[in-house]
Write the structure tokens for this entry.
Amino acid sequence: MSTFKAYFLEGLDHILDINGYDHILFVLALAAIYLMRDWRKVLILITAFTIGHSITLALSTLNYVVIKPELIEFLIPVTIFITAFANLFKKERDLKSTGSMQLNYIFALLFGLIHGLGFSNYLKAILGKNSSIVMELLAFNIGLEVGQIIIVLVFLVLSFIFIDLFGLKRRDWVLIVSSAIAGIAVTIMMETKFW
């Protein structure tokens, strides 16, 4: 198997691994306010997240940025909570307005920086002392991006089923999903070794 394919699969497996559900929760918190017809916006959103985490993933993997893992383990659920909590205050009319959703793009990019630091410990472990990591980083990030797109696609299908087929109000869907994610994020925060 080629090196590119191996690292692509590592990135894909890492984001889709249920044990790494914190990153899945963040992607779902970002996507919670969107519908299937918003797929282009969601793709841009997920790509903004990938850009954010790619920057710190590279900097941390190359040891240009070193932050205690315990702090990152705490900050990741904080980003999930903030994103999900912000969704709770979006009114029905806000969900239909493009301008009010811009905050999620900012969350995706900025909070992606924190998530990249979380990915870096994993990537450092599998890279070892490899002197040239550009291709490996690229492949890993593309794998993460594809995994995130799969997660969002499944979520958008679920939102279509509940909202468009079963008639659940969009606002109620956002409240249910975002409340559950915020609650799980608080639990993760409390379980970190940061305290």
Notes: Residues 134-165 form the longest helix (32 residues). The CA atoms of residues 119 and 189 lie 17 Å apart. The chain has eight helices and no strands. The two ends are 43 Å apart (CA to CA).
